[in-house]
TrEMBL record, chain A:
<dbReference type="InterPro" id="IPR003439">
    <property type="entry name" value="ABC_transporter-like_ATP-bd"/>
</dbReference>
<keyword id="KW-0378">Hydrolase</keyword>
<feature type="domain" description="ABC transporter">
    <location>
        <begin position="5"/>
        <end position="240"/>
    </location>
</feature>
<protein>
    <submittedName>
        <fullName>Zinc transport system ATP-binding protein</fullName>
        <ecNumber>3.6.3.-</ecNumber>
    </submittedName>
</protein>
<dbReference type="InterPro" id="IPR027417">
    <property type="entry name" value="P-loop_NTPase"/>
</dbReference>
<dbReference type="Pfam" id="PF00005">
    <property type="entry name" value="ABC_tran"/>
</dbReference>
<keyword id="KW-0813">Transport</keyword>
<dbReference type="GO" id="GO:0005524">
    <property type="term" value="F:ATP binding"/>
</dbReference>
<keyword id="KW-0547">Nucleotide-binding</keyword>
TrEMBL record, chain B:
<keyword id="KW-0472">Membrane</keyword>
<feature type="transmembrane region" description="Helical">
    <location>
        <begin position="254"/>
        <end position="271"/>
    </location>
</feature>
<protein>
    <submittedName>
        <fullName>Zinc transport system permease protein</fullName>
    </submittedName>
</protein>
<keyword id="KW-1133">Transmembrane helix</keyword>
<feature type="transmembrane region" description="Helical">
    <location>
        <begin position="39"/>
        <end position="58"/>
    </location>
</feature>
<keyword id="KW-0812">Transmembrane</keyword>
<feature type="transmembrane region" description="Helical">
    <location>
        <begin position="98"/>
        <end position="121"/>
    </location>
</feature>
<dbReference type="InterPro" id="IPR001626">
    <property type="entry name" value="ABC_TroCD"/>
</dbReference>
<dbReference type="GO" id="GO:0055085">
    <property type="term" value="P:transmembrane transport"/>
</dbReference>
Length: 251, 277
């Protein structure tokens, strides 16, 4: 089984609103997949299903060939969420402490960091270029720096599969490019499989190997070369009436 | 006072309990404050009051229970209250803070009823409201010592899980941390420590011992571990100096301790300002 992730016929609804309908797709080992779609297209919901934070009403999800209900190796998966959502900027924690917390799942209960784990923490912090800030409190850093710290937290356990949910929201424009370069490096040099969720089609097509377009249904799923051959009309129909909304986001 | 400390058992008891509480209340308080749950301590202290009032009522009406230590029923009420809060927080997912006024007013309502059934206030209840140095018994010392060791053991064993749970609950869940059970253990410990603390600082001021030293420490701490240690140091400082002062000046210990904690907090804020220049 070479698929890192397999999603089979997954549907999800909140109360009476369909968010995901019959989603089928898979991610082969070593791929860098860009999952794109307009706001409200169910991207984050799909991620939450993959991370077991939500349970789909129908369908099945396999991680590393194992049904998600039986999957235990969560340390093989790294997760970077939309920064703005889930943390308190006044939290008194240093960059080191935040990154070290990425080892919690891997270590399991009752085990503390040993010398090797500490070394891994330093390496992850260096890999994202945050070495000089290691003793600073996370709240004192800029949005882009904080996001680098969260990447370090996600890669410190050396996951095989890294999931990123709109990681560049709130990161200033000239840092976005170097951020994507870093992801490309993780994919090519460290052979990490990546799933990047974004509503920004333009920037990612240079970096990713596969693209999946989601808007409640999966409209397209294939290699980036196939994606490049899609006509503008196809894209417009996929984005539908959300197209102007997207343009507004970029303003 | 040192002489008196060796001479009177009640003073020794008060100091032992004070030192234990001054350690664990701010320690747990750090986790409470960073998770923005500060008001939970207030709600639970009022539920504890209902337990104390119930216990005093039972003591008065049934002589067989005359020697029952009210701290036990207070703890039971506090723990049950904490479970109710958790339930309400899941019922009102989008209004999580609503659980706090519901439990708080429920606790006061119950207390008032128990107090009126017992034909009004007595001095015993007064000492629970505002804290008392002379009222600490040997059973209190034992009970609170046990709670002290439970709290320290749990924090030592689950430190990294609680850290990640406090910092980023969604991430904790995604890393396979058992968020629900850890939170359950946490809230039960908070309930126990609140019931234990009321002896010295009094029910109305318990929450301050969990929040004021923490509020001071997070102004100046670099990192989470430092925040934990500074909170404990500030907590102990307030409790020990407060007990001395209240004994000498014949003041209510709860009020003295809390005012000292407020002074420390002001000091921390000014220090930070001065350092920034």
């Amino acid at each position: 089984m070479d698929d890192i992730l397999r999603v089979e016929n997954v549907s999800f609804r909140y109360d009476d609103e369909d968010v995901l309908q019959h989603i089928n797709f898979h991610i082969p080992k070593g791929a860098f997949v860009g999952l794109v779609g307009p706001n409200g297209s169910g991207k984050s919901t799909l991620l939450k299903c993959i991370l077991r934070l939500l349970k789909p009403q129908t369908g099945q999800i396999f991680l590393f060939g194992t049904p998600i209900e039986q999957f235990k190796d969560w340390h093989k998966i790294g997760f970077v969420s939309q920064k703005a959502n889930s943390f308190n900027t006044g939290f008194p924690a240093t960059v080191y402490e935040v990154v070290a917390s990425g080892l919690t799942g891997k270590l399991g209960l009752f085990r503390r960091l040993n010398k090797r784990d500490e070394k891994a923490v330093y390496e992850a912090i260096d890999a994202v270029g945050m070495g000089p800030f290691i003793r600073r409190n996370i709240g004192e850093l800029s949005g882009g720096q904080q996001q680098r710290v969260f990447i370090a937290r996600a890669i410190v356990s050396q996951p095989e599969f890294l999931i990123l949910d709109e990681p560049t929201v709130g990161v200033d424009v000239h840092h976005v490019q170097s951020f994507y370069d870093m992801l490309e490096r993780l994919n090519k040099q460290h052979h990490m499989t990546l799933l990047l969720v974004t509503h920004d089609i333009g920037t990612i097509t240079e970096k990713v190997t596969h693209v999946a377009c989601l808007n409640k249904h999966l409209h397209f799923h294939g290699s980036v070369q196939q994606f490049a051959q899609l006509k503008t009309e196809d894209l417009a129909s996929f984005y539908g009436h959300h197209l102007h909304l997207l343009a507004h986001d970029h303003a | 006072m040192l002489e008196a400390l060796f001479q009177y058992e009640f003073l020794q008891n008060a100091f032992i309990v004070g030192i234990l509480i001054g350690f664990i209340a701010p320690l747990l308080g750090v986790f409470i404050v960073v998770r923005r749950l500060s008001l939970i301590a207030d709600a639970l202290s009022h539920v504890t009051l209902a337990g104390i009032a119930a216990s005093l009522l039972v003591q008065k009406k049934f002589l067989t229970f005359a020697t029952l230590n009210p701290i036990y029923i207070g703890m039971a009420f506090s723990v049950v209250g904490s479970l109710f809060i958790e339930k309400l927080r899941t019922v009102y997912k989008h209004y999580q803070e609503l659980a706090i006024p519901i439990i708080l007013s429920g606790g006061i309502g119950l207390s008032v009823i128990f107090i009126s059934l017992a034909d009004g206030f007595n001095t015993d209840l007064f000492s629970y409201l505002f804290g008392s140095v002379s009222a600490v018994s040997t059973t209190d010392v034992w009970t609170i010592s046990i709670i002290f060791f439970i709290v320290l053991t749990v924090i030592f064993l689950f430190y990294k899980e609680w850290f990640i749970l406090s910092f980023d609950e969604e991430y904790a869940q995604a890393s396979g941390v058992k968020v629900k059970s850890l939170h359950f253990v946490f809230i039960v410990l908070v309930a126990l420590v609140i019931a234990a603390s009321m002896r010295i600082v009094g029910i109305l001021l318990v929450s301050s011992l969990m929040t004021l030293p923490v509020a001071a420490s997070i102004r100046i701490a670099k990192g989470f571990k430092q925040a934990l240690w500074l909170s404990v140091i500030f907590g102990e400082l307030a409790v020990i100096v407060g007990l001395f002062l209240s004994y000498y000046l014949n003041l209510a210990p709860g009020g003295t301790i809390v005012l000292l904690a407020v002074c420390i907090l002001i000091g921390a804020i000014m220090w930070k300002k001065w350092k920034r220049g």
